[in-house]
Amino acid sequence: MSEKENLKLQVNKILDERATEIIDIAKRIAANPEPGYKEYKTAKLVQEEFDKLQLPHKDNLAITGVKSWLDTGSLGPTLAIIGELDSMVVPAHQNADPITGAAHACGHHCQIAMMLGVAASMKLSGVLDKLSGRLVFFAVPAEELIEVEFRNGLRSQGKLEFIGGKPELVKLGEFDDVEIAMMTHTTSTPEDRLLAVSGTNNGLVVKQIRYVGLGAHAGGSPHMGINALNAATLGLQSINALRETFQGEDTVRVHPIITKGGDAVSAVPSDVRLETFVRASNVDAILDWDKKVDRALRAGAMAVGAKVKISTIPGYLPLNMDQTMMSHWQNNAETLVGKESVSFTGHRTGSTDMGDISQIIPSIHPYAGGVTGIGHGADYIVQDYMKAVINPAKAMAMTVIDLLSDGASGAKAVISKSKIPHTKESYLKLMRSFSRDEEFEN
Ligand SMILES: [Zn+2]
Ligand SMILES: [Zn+2]
Predict the structure, then answer these.
(1) What does the alpha-carbon distance between residue 151 and residue 162 come to, in Å, rounded to a whole number?
(2) Is 1 a residue whose pLDDT tops 90?
(3) What spacing in Å lies between the alpha carbon of 375 and ligand 2's midpoint?
(4) What residue ranges in 165-270 does DSSP mark as E strands?
(5) What is the pLDDT of residues 378-402, one digit of tens each?
(6) Which residue(s) pair with 182 in the sheet?
(7) How far is the CA of 439 from the centre of ligand 2 (A)?
(8) Which ligand is nearest to the CA of 88?
(9) How many whole angstroms from 382 Cα to the centroid of ligand 2?
(10) Quick one: pLDDT at residue 353?
């Protein structure tokens, strides 16, 4: 057996021995769900687990993030294992917090447990003196793009610039020392099988829209008013009129909701509010549809003589999967669960801020099964924690061995072959270019 295979057995042995303890971490987090930038209990739990492993950590990064590190003692690249702290808000979920409605309906509790599992396996297995480089274990806040108003409030108070945790951490310089990054997300799609090699994801921008009309008696004098709800519905119809021009390869998704439809049924609505994401598979298409959606929204205002205020907020960039690293992960996944239990997800039309990391650092974002139900739904339940936490922890730990053993030759190859679209500076410039407030009145 090669030394590399032997090291993989050693890290997996720790993950088997500590499986119950690692799974218990996931269960404790699931019992205390907290949405983005409010993950205080979850962050404290992570800090305590790092303390138990006698790993140093920096706390309160982008409000709740916790970052730890482990040096092998030999020079080499820094590789980060990431887990997301935040939950969704799904009040109907069986494990929802009765007060906030928060629930782990996206499996992030499993990510934190697997990240801590990898940390334990590296620290306790005795493999470090055979590795080169440095490991970062990073619990990051706010991946789910929800509670936009709350986060926008944090933006206006100067506590945040970006509403997603990873873009904010990039801005703060907390990824400056990271040269390679990986995390594993859970999946409930049966076709994904036990472990799934992933492809790409859509990126997005967020829009908050407010139509301003003029209130008047809805029965007695509607001709004196300007109906903001009519303006909004025309704006929505204008967006719908553009759908036939979406190009298949761009996988554009525009899905607005009305968050306020009026104040009183007896008054002509004068304040109507919408929110939408504009998603696409590539930055050019996001930029294009960002503008076309604004144009359609203006059309609604123009038709009835209302005013429209459009606030565009940078969201996430598309995911750019590192093929070299992914092939290591795939080999390890196939060794662990058998080739027939490993699938390929292709392109996904949802979005993640791991996309942002992948635009500046070679990254992978594969998937692990063991879950049933609908993602973000009330029935998203982890059925088998060995599959949802221990399998992916092993696949990542084995990939760390591939990358950092043998003088970190694997990691160096990943870095030299990677196709990274952005530097941190060009990434931040692009993100900031999305941010704008527009007011349109005919
Ligand atoms: Zn999610
Ligand atoms: Zn998620």
Answers:
(1) 8
(2) no
(3) 8
(4) 180-182, 185-186, 195-197, 203-212, 253-254, 257-260
(5) 999 999 999 999 999 999 999 999 9
(6) 81, 364
(7) 34
(8) 1
(9) 13
(10) 98
Question: What does DSSP say about strands 88-89 and 102-103: parallel, antiparallel, or unpaired?
Answer: antiparallel
Amino acid, single-letter form, for residue 224: M
Distance CA 302, CA 300 (A): 5
Centre of ligand 2 from the C-alpha of residue 32, in Å: 16
Number of other CB atoms surrounding residue 220 within 10 Å: 9
What domains are defined for the chain?
3-201+319-427 (3.40.630.10), 203-316 (3.30.70.360)
pLDDT at 442: 82
Q: pLDDT tens for residues 60-116?
A: 999 999 999 999 999 999 999 999 999 999 999 999 999 999 999 999 999 999 999
Ligand nearest to the CA of 187: 2
Q: Which residue has the tokens 């909701």?
A: 257
Ligand nearest to the CA of 183: 2
What pTM was computed for the model?
A: 0.97
* Distant-in-sequence, close-in-space partners of 406: CB < 8 Å, separation ≥ 6: 4
Please enumerate in sequence order all residues whose Cβ is within 8 A of that of 390, keeping only pairs 6 or more positions apart, or say none.
Answer: 15, 16, 19, 22, 23, 114, 117
Q: Point out which residues pair with 226 in neighbouring strands.
A: 214
Residue 190, token pair as written in the block:
């049966």
Closest CA to 317 of 261, 355, 279, 371: 355
C-alpha 119 – ligand 1 centre gap (Å): 24
Q: Are 65 and 162 in contact (CB under 8 A)?
A: no
Dihedral sign of CA atoms 418, 422, 428, 431 in order: negative
Token pair recorded at residue 50: 């790092």
pLDDT digits (tens, 9 = 90+) for 350-376: 999 999 999 999 999 999 999 999 999
User: Separation of 91 CA from ligand 2 center, angstroms?
Assistant: 17
- Taking only the tens place, the pLDDT of each residue in 410-434 is 999 999 999 999 999 999 999 999 9
Cα 87 to ligand 2 centroid, rounded to whole Å: 8
CA distance 432 to 356: 13
- Predicted local confidence at residue 415, as pLDDT: 98
How many Å is the Cα radius of gyration of the chain?
Answer: 23
Distance CA 242, CA 239 (A): 5
